[in-house]
């Protein structure tokens, strides 16, 4: 029987969602963003999408081939939309799943990356990959390093490039490769999200037969002692971060990673202090 992903409503018990995620490596949650929020986010994104160039130059040819030239990107979303930072990045379900999967192995977790990925007509399927491979130097076996999600801002269908995932692959040996029949597609209405572990094999799907842009947020969280994929302190500089909630500031790296209680130390200090306090005191953003 072909594998499927379990789907939950946002109102479901988050422990049940976590259990399914633990078992399958991925789960769908319907209604993560309600309609009014989708509309407000859509209005904020439109000018940014209009200005995005799908043929943009990437860091190097490997990254260029991975993303292709049919995808519009808006990177560093938390610095581009306060609404995104507070309502999506700090979504209670994401935080509760991060508490479950990441907090046992760090003192605090961080936002790893937050993009819009707008996969246009003609975008081929990405290479199948595990998002955690950005930290290829971490010896294996290792604890779960990352929790990720693609949130649909339009209906995701097989035709317009719904994310392809391989249930169970988070527990596979590295050398095992997915067969085409092991892929499932995160078909879901706008406002829903597919949430997956950094160890789960997946790829952005092919958008070859539709004439629609497949707009979605791609965001992820990582253990707080890892270098994050996006430089969030530059994506959201102090003068902007001071307008955000303390929770959002911590996710962006304005807090310290305080492992003293675990007989560890501090990461991310400034002037031997917690940057979040300096931000609150107005010192940080007024520096020159
Ligand atoms: O856009 C998607 O469906 C997935 C994107 C993805 O997996 C990635 O960029 O790492
Ligand atoms: Fe990915």
Write a structural description.
By secondary structure, this protein is α+β, with helices and mostly antiparallel strands. It has one domain: Jelly Rolls (Sandwich), CATH 2.60.120. Helix content is 27%, strand content 19%. It is built from ten helices and twelve strands. The chain has helices spanning 14-24, 35-51, 61-67, 77-80, 82-89, 92-101, 232-235, 238-241, 246-251, 275-280; strands at residues 7-9, 26-30, 71-74, 109-119, 146-152, 164-165, 184-185, 193-197, 202-203, 214-223, 257-258, 266-267. The protein has a seven-stranded mixed beta sheet with strand order 1-2-8-5-10-4-3. The chain has a three-stranded antiparallel beta sheet with strand order 7-6-9, with no helix packed on it. β1, α1 (14-24) and β2 (26-30) form a beta-alpha-beta unit. α1 crosses α6. The longest helix is centred in the first third of the chain and has 17 residues, at 35-51. It is globular, with a radius of gyration of 19 Å. The model has no long low-confidence stretch (mean pLDDT 95). Residues 117, 126, 131, 150, 163, 202-204, 216, 218 line the site of 2-oxoglutaric acid. Fe (ii) ion (FE2) binds at residues 129, 131, 202.
């Amino acid at each position: 029987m072909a594998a499927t992903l379990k789907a939950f409503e946002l109102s479901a018990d988050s422990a049940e969602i976590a259990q399914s995620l633990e078992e399958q490596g991925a789960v769908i949650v319907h209604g993560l963003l309600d309609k009014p929020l989708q509309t407000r986010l859509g209005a904020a994104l439109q000018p940014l999408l209009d200005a995005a160039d799908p043929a943009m130059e990437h860091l190097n040819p490997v990254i260029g081939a991975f993303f292709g030239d049919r995808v519009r990107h808006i990177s560093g979303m938390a610095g581009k939309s306060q609404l995104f930072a507070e309502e999506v990045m700090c979504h209670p379900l994401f935080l509760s799943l991060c508490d479950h999967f990441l907090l046992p192995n760090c003192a605090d977790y961080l936002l790893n990356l937050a993009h819009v990925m707008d996969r246009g007509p003609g975008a081929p399927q990405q290479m199948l990959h595990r998002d955690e491979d950005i930290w290829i130097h971490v010896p294996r076996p290792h604890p779960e390093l990352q929790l990720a999600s693609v949130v649909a801002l339009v209906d995701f269908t097989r035709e317009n490039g719904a994310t392809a995932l391989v249930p169970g692959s988070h527990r596979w040996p590295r050398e095992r490769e997915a067969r085409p029949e092991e892929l499932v597609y995160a078909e879901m209405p706008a406002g829903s999200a597919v949430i997956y572990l950094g160890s789960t094999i997946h790829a952005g799907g092919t958008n070859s037969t539709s004439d629609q842009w497949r707009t979605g947020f791609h965001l992820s969280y990582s253990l707080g002692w890892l270098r994050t994929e996006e430089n969030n302190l530059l994506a959201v500089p102090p003068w902007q971060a001071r307008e955000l909630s303390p929770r959002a500031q911590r996710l962006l790296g304005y807090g310290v990673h305080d492992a003293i209680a675990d007989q560890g130390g501090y990461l991310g200090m400034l002037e031997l202090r917690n940057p979040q306090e300096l931000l609150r005191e107005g010192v940080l953003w007024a520096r020159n």
